[in-house]
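#struct-help
A.M.: can someone run this one for me? Single chain, 118 residues.
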Amino acid sequence: MEKEFEDYWKLHSKQLIAKAPPQLAAELKHSQGMNTAGDWLVLLFVIAPGVTFASAGVIPNEILNFVCALGIIVVLNVVGELLKPYVTGKRRAGDIIQDIKNYYYNRYKQEGSLAGLL
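D.P.: on it. Structure tokens below:
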């Protein structure tokens, strides 16, 4: 993409995403919510092992036990975010944002100016 548009996107991406076409805005909002059974399943996948590890007391030092449980939750959260589209059937938020960016880039190419985007 052209540098002029990329610089504009970096400065105004939040405003452009907020003014995205209704279909893309609704899909983005839906993809970020906890509105399917798969979302709750991923949340359970993330939290249950960490809580189980913390309550099992595998490590005698309570603070170290807590830190390890927190580490488990963080790692599983990353894995859960990677698995979420397959479990929930929703597209990743990053993919939807890329579609919004492409929409505005196409408008920029058609209009030949950044003035009408915001």
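A.M.: thanks! The chain has five helices and no strands.
D.P.: also worth noting: The longest helix spans residues 62-88.
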